[in-house]
Amino acid sequence: MPKIDYEKYLIRKPLYEAFGGTKNRQSPTMTMLSNKQVPGCNYYMEPGWIYGIPEPNPSLHEHVHDYDEIVMHIGGNYKTPQVLGGEVEFYIGGQPIVFNTSTAIYVPKGTPHGPVIWKDFQFPHLQMAIMLGTGSVGEAWEESGIHNEKIALPKKNKDFDYEQYVVRSPIREVAPGVTGHTSPTLTYMSSVQVPGVKYYIEYGWTFGIPVSKNYGNGVPEMVHNNYDEIILFLGGDPQNPEDLGADIEMYLGGQALTFDTTSTLFIPRGLRHGPLSCKKYRRPSIALAIMCGAGTYKEAWGDSSMGKDSK
């Protein structure tokens, strides 16, 4: 049987293909997962740093997708991770949602959303779109109408409170007792927070060599039999976003992969992965994990060694 090179699941460098021509933000944004990078994954993920009030404002107008989407706005200061560093007005279904904390919004397919308007800016932060069910920038954005400027703001026409799709404050339930890392981590999407959602997203900042009370410097080997997992390692320097600020070693299928740049690991269900360890630390960075198809902590981690030992 031919030996598999698991390097194919590691994205070490982003593509730059979406949202060019906007001032005061990373433009184009960083495509960190797509079918171009991992054929057949059918997920599209692109984060980008906000450096000030974007110009034009709004630059993202009302649009609609044929796929579910999760939009995240993440504060850029590891010391106060729930503080966004700006104030954003995000329309969904014609309803304005205003927030100044790190926030995630679930947008079901077919739901109009936008414009996205910055009301205030204090310090750099991230905006990230995660498209579920497509790995193509064309399918994700080109026919959505996102760049078609509208004269008037949208109006709500359904008797539905879209606030229930908004997660303004995290659950703290994963990886307690870790130094050098946000502990417990910040769960910003789950079926507990948004009923019916089958994606579990948690992240935390690394601000030293992480040391766990259970595992020391690292996360042990595990396997998820029922769910694909996506792990984004995102550098925390907005002026040098491709520099991860750390040297990471991660095993996939027993193969050691090392990287020091902003990177994504796509881990198909059933593939053993880990241990994971930080070999060198230079500056703060973000590690964000998405369990695809799992809605709760128990579903996401219950069949892995980490889930059993970290409760």
Q: Could you please describe the fold and organization of this structure?
A:
With 311 residues, the chain is mainly beta. The chain has two domains: 10-167, Jelly Rolls (Sandwich), CATH 2.60.120; 178-309, Jelly Rolls. Helix content is 5%, strand content 44%. The protein is built from three helices and 19 strands. The protein is globular and about 55 Å long. The model is unreliable at 307-311 (pLDDT under 50).
Number of domains: 2
Q: What are the low-pLDDT stretches, counting only 5+ consecutive residues below 50?
A: 307-311
Percentage of β-strand residues: 35-45%
- Figure out the total of helices: 3
Structural class assignment: mainly beta
- The CATH class name of the largest domain reads Mainly Beta
Could you tell me the number of beta strands?
19
Briefly note the CATH topology name of the largest domain: Jelly Rolls
Q: What is the helix fraction of residues, given as a range? A: under 10%
User: What separation lies between the terminal Cα atoms?
Assistant: 39 Å
